[in-house]
Amino acid sequence: MTASDQRIRVCELMDARGLDAHLLALETCLDERAVDAIRRQQYTPSPAQRRYIAEALQVESDDILWGHAIECEALKDPV
User: Which of 61, 72, 50 is closest to 7 using CA atoms?
Assistant: First the structure.
């Protein structure tokens, strides 16, 4: 298992806490569009943005898998 296998995506943390991009943006004082892009892993946040998001999600920044990837919705089973 690699270090990235042990990290969790922002979207999974948000889902677990019942947060959407709007609520997380309010908690972090970041732009909602930026939070949504980070959630979808279409934008790699700065170190400061990572710190704000990790604090709002009550985890360490190193516990989060940052960067570009596929969307969480693409991983979910169809209903």
Answer: 61
Distance CA 54, CA 75 (A): 23
Question: What single DSSP character describes residue 22?
Answer: H
Q: Which residues pair with 65 in a beta bridge?
A: 9
- The pTM of the whole model exceeds 0.85: no
Q: Which residue has the tokens 């209903």?
A: 79
Report the sign of the C-alpha dihedral through residues 17, 52, 21, 7, in that order. negative
- Cα 42-47-26 angle, rounded to 5 deg: 70
Report the alpha-carbon angle 68-69-70, nearest 5: 140
- CA distance linking residue 6 with residue 10, whole number of Å: 13
Cβ atoms of 64 and 9 within 8 Å: the answer is yes
Residue 1's pLDDT is: 41
Structure confidence at residue 4 (pLDDT): 53
